[in-house]
Amino acid sequence: MTAAIELDGVGKRYWQLSQQAMLLKSLLPFSRPTKTERWAVRNLTASIEVGETVGILGRNGAGKTTLLRMLAGVSRPTEGRIRIRGQVAPLISMGVGFHQEMSGRENVYVNGMLLGLSQAEITRRFDQIVEFAELADFIDTPVKFYSSGMYMRLGFAVAAHVDPDVLLVDEVLAVGDVAFQLKCIDRMRRLQQEGATIVVVSHSMHAVRLLCPRALLIRRGELVFDGDSETAISKHHELLTLDAAELATAAGDESNRTGDVTILSRELRGPNGPTHHPDQDEVLTYVVALRFERPVESPQMVFQVVTDVGILAYSMQTTLGRSWRRFEAGETVQTEIVFRPRLGGGTFRLVLVVTDRSGNSVLCRDADGFLMYTAPRLGTAGIAELEATIAVGEHDMTDHDSLLLASAGPGRAGDRDGAGSDPLADGNDIGAQPAWVVEPGERPEGHPWRDVGVDRPLRPGLDNPEPSAPGELLHIPLVEPET
Amino acid sequence: MQPADRRHQQVLEFAPHPETRRQWFAQLWSYRSVLDILARRDFQTRYKRASLGVIWAVAVPLLQAAVMAFVFSHVLRVGSGQRFAVYVMSGVVAYTYFSTVVQAGSTAIVDGAGLTDKVWFPRALLVIVPALSSLVGFVVTLVVVVAITPVFGVSLGPRLLLLIPATALLFAFSLGVSLVLGALHVYFRDVRFLVLAALTILIYLAPIVYPQTQLHRFGPWLDFNPLTGIVVLFHMSTVGSGGPWVRAVVVSVCATAVLLLAGTEAQRRHDRLFVDLL
Prior knowledge:
The complex is a heterodimer.
Chain A: E1 3-17, H1 23-27, E2 35-49, E3 53-57, H2 64-72, E4 79-85, E5 88-92, H3 104-114, H4 119-133, H5 148-160, E6 166-170, H6 178-193, E7 197-201, H7 205-211, E8 214-219, E9 222-228, H8 229-255, E10 261-270, E11 273-274, E12 284-292, E13 296-297, E14 300-307, E15 312-317, E16 326-327, E17 332-339, E18 346-355, E19 362-365, E20 370-374, E21 391-392, E22 395-396, H9 400-406, E23 435-438, E24 474-477
Parallel strand pairs in A: 3-7, 3-8, 5-6, 6-7
Antiparallel strand pairs in A: 1-2, 1-4, 8-9, 10-11, 10-12, 12-17, 13-16, 14-15, 14-18, 18-19, 18-20, 21-22, 23-24
Chain B: H1 2-9, E1 11-14, H2 21-30, H3 32-48, H4 55-75, H5 81-106, H6 108-111, H7 113-116, H8 124-148, H9 163-187, H10 191-202, H11 226-238, H12 246-270
């Protein structure tokens, strides 16, 4: 085996200037802008064999893109040495440097030549490229009129048809529609089979899991893990939650007090105690302790689940405009949200928003929230887990083991045999019933929700009206009954 | 498969130090086909969406030269006679090329950031592109100027051959200035505006719109402006020599050599660092 990519103590230093250098100022002897050094990447040593596909994980600013830029040769390392064998085709975010005024056709040529093809070679592959990009009708239109999806497709199509020995992929799978993403993954699989070395940088754990047997985890510019991607992903997630916790402590309760409501603590409880990695079928309780800094009349709550790229996966709010209780300044209260994370695989942020009675003014938005990671069911992608099954003709093609793997929650044992029982039968109305909690003595007389939830069969953990032991709490579901 | 094999076997090495001079020039040379296509596109896209198309590449500098010639020979009367009109036109055409190239070239690396922060190729290519693509318009304009010269009663002669070294020197000098300024502009964004300011002044610091003798005892000082030598060569080939020219041309050639050396050196050393500042 020969190494396709060798990194030997690679480091990249940036100078962070307090301001952009200016010609006149730099000529004056005493007014040099103060600069602080920042190592985007430091001490990176790794070796990637020919034909390997390796993912690079790390949170934003960890140095992934810097590393990729150095691999592409665009940026020079400050220390260390990089050796790359063969033709490199970088595919970094949106398209590889297209010229806005030129048509798609011309850009294919310029781009292909920049990637090392000759004009004749491009001509030979041209039809393939256009077909792959699905741009036959627009190939003579200047790319500035392209949508971002078209732009991206063309970029990927060119890079993928260069027959690179080393393909560098950065966040490409985050754009474009699902059909095209699948096509890209397909194409990358083919390049893999043909022996190409591929480096994938992606925030999508899904893409990394799908393509890369091995992953490097980078944190603050340093390599912290190099090994199989499953371990890397779980380590990555550990670090994410760790960093988030660190950040929260660093910010401290004092600086958190800017709003009208202070978040005191957050905790996600699963059946086996506090967790960051719930299974999809577990009934979870998200507990947020908060303190009102000024008197608030009948606050309302919004519970949101947001993906790691900021897409709202779920939002649920209490009924606006209802009067129910006044909280005094300094009063603390615990909010409990019960839900089931029927989400696709990935990192999700649980966000609690507290508003006034009308919902018009936000008193507190817990934007940092709580980071939670759910493992995807095998063969699934996306932000929702619909527990779909696929039957072709009479033949059930669903991997029922994977259905169970992710949803080993209570009451699911009957599904184990798969055939015959509807996997949705038990689950379809549970997760939608969050509840929150107030102290029983504080409940105002004639509260409109008082009797909610008792006319339905009780399910453990959800509609339990018994006050639980500590704090004498009572669950009051926020959803009104149908009348 | 044969041509592909070469690139599949290359081993790239990136280290903190820049490439050697030999490596850098070899790379520059290997990217010549890219340079060719970029220059072509640059020329085409500039005029593509205008109804008169490429005609503008000739019409604008020609009009500029004609107006300048008219103003300085008939309104301000710095010089006199029809010879002077040709004198101004040939100078202005050369200066227009210089000014177009330097304006585009000095900002090329920053303006081309979108094209360059993903794939590497020698950044100097971006600077060379405007120098090449403007050459087409320049040559055609020059031909038109020469063609109408007899109308002004100036006879043409074998001295026209001087246009070749004159154009070569103009190209090399413009390129040298662009390479140096292009590298500098990445670090200091003032350069863009300094260039604009300098270009409006420079035209009066060379004998373009007035005869050098007009300045009396200050005239010889113009020789130290490298542009003077270039313009003098153009004058010599169109209207014939008007006085001493050796010193001015020597200054131009030396300045061009120094600028080209400094420019390629700056580009080589900073090539893979530019991206960090874009």
